[in-house]
Amino acid sequence: MILWSEAIKTALSDRIERVTGVRPVLKPSKKAHLASPSFFGADASAAADALNARVSDCVLYGAPLLSHVIAENGWLLFFLTADAIDAYANTLPPPEEPDDSFFSRRLWAMARHADAKTPDDPALLDGFYAVLFSAPDGERRFLAAPRTHDGNERVALEQRLSRMAKILLWERRNSLCVGQDSDTRPF
Known about the structure:
Strand order of the largest sheet: 1-5-4
Largest sheet: 3 strands, antiparallel
Strand content: 5-15%
Oligomer: single chain
Low-confidence stretches: 178-187
Helix content: 40-55%
């Protein structure tokens, strides 16, 4: 079983390698969804320009994965799309009952809202991808993102998080199962 976070890294790494000839090391980032120091010795600006020119070629589950790339201090900063979230969420079964953690319970409540297109809100995408790639403080960033909006706008935004929550619940559940035999379960 492959985790979606790993599928994203593989698809993105493959695309970067095809365009630049360099296989990147991808890491979580506070400034972007993923970052790579692999271009530190090379011309990161030229690599970012080449990737941005072919951004539409980077797809996963039939949807655009890569929004844009920025070069900063020799690093490449990658920003991913909301479309990729929608495409992947449509492949998942309904989420199972979560564990007892506060974050999982919040995700469970969000996942039970009506299915709606994922909002293309930068703070929300940052928080989502921070959790997905295990960035420091990711859970807090995800839960705090709707608070950047006021009143009815915040409520409407929170009601459109079902797909994000579904993916995060699925990813958390399956990350615990990686490496375990599916027939051996604790009683």
